[in-house]
Structure formats: structure tokens, C-alpha cells
Amino acid sequence: MSPGSTVLSEILDRIYSARTGRPPGRMLAYEKTREILRSYGLPYDPGWDSTEALGVTGGSTITNRGYSRMLAAETGVQRCYVISAADIHASPEGGRFARYEGQGRGKQAFSDGGTGSLVLISEGGQAGAPEGRYIGVALVGNFEGTRRGAWGAELLQPRWFAAPISFDSVQIIGANPRDLITEVTWDLYREIVGVGSGVPPLPHEVEARLDGNLADGISEETQALQVGMVEVAGGVIPSARAAGVLEPSAQFEPSYSLDDDSPVRDGTSLRGRSPDQRLRDKEVERRAVLLVNQYLQGKGWTFRRDRQPDGVGYDLEMSDGSSVRHVEVKGIAGSRLEFNLTPFEWWRACEDHDFLVAAVTDTLDPQKAYVHLLEGRDLMAAQRSAVQYRLIL
């Protein structure tokens, strides 16, 4: 598909029905795509597989990458590319990443392939460089970045050929030396790897390598979205802890309608959240924690301890150099600063002068996010309302 092309929703409906055995009904394209990929054992990424993370309204669009991943899963054949060794860089963690800037030729096709794609690594072939040759292969792991800016693909399990293969001995139809990345067919990839390593790969071997590297002890949510290349902005970091007695503002009392067919509070539907929405909420929260940690460490703070499993009323212990702060993270998919606090978290806000809420807006945006840092006095001044009551009889 060319960029901007439209695929009839009927095609997505047919795929959904074939994979799940049931009609899609009135599901959004986002929801159908999530279920289709899940049926193949693959995570759904709202930042790359669709426009969901961009908050697009008036329709749901599935990207070329989303359809590409369905096709690769159905056929058992991954998409294959040639990348230059000159564009592969070591990461601080010791791995390898292929990184590019701007709209390099071939970049869009590579991003469409996404996680699980295969790469042939080349070297030379440019003006003033030695004769070009293919020197090895790798598997694409986590895919990070933005559609327009810097981006990177993690390269897993690189393997080097015992006998590198000259460019002159292989004909790639449509290859352009100006392209940063060139896509090749599975058959050609298999042929080159067979000559270079002596053993041509089989599709099931590709699947085994993918499972072993990407799914080993890693949850679906962890695979789905990475944040290392998201631009994270934020508010002013408090220089001193709140002090004194904090007095909350008066509680806001919402208004309700009595329409039983469509319950509404202050113009907002009260219908419960679907299982898919709850899964999305979970991903928003997970991603928000990563973004907050990234932002605060970028400002000189030090991560001390993850308190999420401990039930202490906050998520992270962070140090600003002079004291330890108790940071409760709130992930918000949209841009409106609105979130819930549990009774325990509210008690923390009132009593714990080290308590700090880090609320992340636009959490699912693959390009940018904003961290709002709120002290107890900020929370006391906010408009608040009860969302439920616990009755003890």
C-alpha cells in the first residue's frame, strides 16, 4: 500500500472473523487489529500499528505496519531488508541499534516491517569504500522512535558469515545505492544466508529465534511499546518539600441524568470500560512509569526503588540529592490533566510531605509526552469529586 491509501473495513472484518470465529460487530478498527494480532501471539502497538496513540477522532486508521505484521504472521515469512554496517551503533546497554534521522530512503518500508523482520548486514560499496559485500544477518527486536524524527531498530543475535558475499554476485531487482535500506524477498534473503553461512534458514527457525529473544520472560505489555526515543517534557521540579497543614478545597458534587438507556454524569457516559479499554489502561500506566523515570533521571534525579508491588501508596522512590521523594505515577492517554487517587493515595497527599504525583499526559503518543509534577498543595487546590462509595452496614 502507498502512504495515505485506504483499505476497506470489510477486509479487516474478514480477517477478524477468520481468526476469531465470530463477527466483529461494531468494534473499532483499533480493537479488531488488537484482537487479530493477539490471535497470532503478537502484541499490538497503538503508536505504530494504528493511529490510536495519536488521538485521531472521526475514524480509526490501521497503518501499513499493522497490515504487514498480519501478513507476516499469516504466511510465516518475515519481511527482509539490507542495512549498512555503518548505520549500526552500540547502545549503552551493550546491544546494537540501527539508527537514522529524518526521512531516509527505505526507512518507511523498514518501519512497516517492524519487530521480527530480518536484516542482511552489508559493508562497503560506497564511493571511496572497499568493494561492497554482505557480511552477516540479524533479527529486529524492539522498534523505537517517531515517524518523522530519530528512530532505531534493535538488532538481536547478529551472526557473521564465514565467507562474505560480494555485491557483484547477487542481483537485487530495484536496488538503489542511494537507499539507506533496501527490502529484499524472503527467497533472496534465504539464498544469500545459505551461501554465507552454509545453512539456509527455514521460516520455523525464524519463529523460534523471535520467540526466544522477544518473549523470554517479557510480558506482552513490555513488548508492545518502548519509550527510549520519546521526547519527554515536564513541569518545574519542586526544589523543597511541602510543609505545614494542607487543607483541601471543597468537594465538587457532580450532576446526573436519569436516562436509564444512556446513563450520563455531567455530559460524560457512565458505561463501564470494556476489557480492551482496561488492557489499554494497563499499558498507559506501564508506559507512564517508564516515561517518569526517564524524565526525572534526565533532570539529575536518582532512581532508588520500585514500590509498585509493595502497596505503599506510591510507585517510585526517587532522590533529588538532598531527600527521597515518594512519586505516584498517573498515566493519561489524552492531554486533559484529570486522574483518580485512591483513598490511601489521598491520605499520602494530605500527610506525607515527601509525596509527589507525576501525571503523564499524551502517554501513548510515540513522539512526545509531558510530565506534570504535583505536590500536596497542588492536589489540595484541585477540583475533586467522589467516584464511588464503600458502604459498611
Q: How big a fraction of the residues is strand?
A: 15-25%
CATH architecture of the largest domain: Roll
Largest sheet: 7 strands, mixed
Q: Briefly note the structural class of the backbone.
A: alpha+beta
Features of this protein?
393 residues, alpha+beta, ph1033 like fold, seven-stranded mixed β-sheet, six-stranded mixed β-sheet, 10 helices, globular
Task: Describe the secondary-structure layout.
Elements: H1 9-20, H2 29-39, H3 64-75, E1 80-84, E2 88-90, E3 96-100, H4 107-113, E4 118-123, E5 133-145, E6 151-166, E7 181-184, H5 186-197, H6 203-214, H7 220-224, E8 231-234, E9 264-265, E10 268-269, H8 275-298, E11 302-306, E12 316-319, E13 324-331, H9 343-351, E14 355-361, E15 368-374, H10 376-381
Parallel strand pairs: 1-4, 8-15, 13-14
Antiparallel strand pairs: 1-7, 2-3, 3-6, 4-5, 5-6, 9-10, 11-12, 12-13, 14-15
Helix pairs in contact: 1-2
Walkthrough of the structure:
The protein is α+β, with helices and mostly antiparallel strands and 393 residues long. It folds into three domains: 9-73, no CATH class; 76-218, ph1033 like fold; 231-256 and 273-381, no CATH class. The chain has ten helices and 15 strands. The strands form three sheets. Strands 2-3-6-5-4-1-7 form a seven-stranded mixed β-sheet, with helices on both faces. Strands 8-15-14-13-12-11 form a six-stranded mixed β-sheet, with helices on both faces. A hairpin with a 6-residue loop joins strand 14 and strand 15 (368-374). Helix 1 (9-20) runs parallel beside helix 2 (29-39). The longest helix has 24 residues, at 275-298. The chain is globular, with a radius of gyration of 25 Å. Residues 204-226 have low confidence and may be disordered.
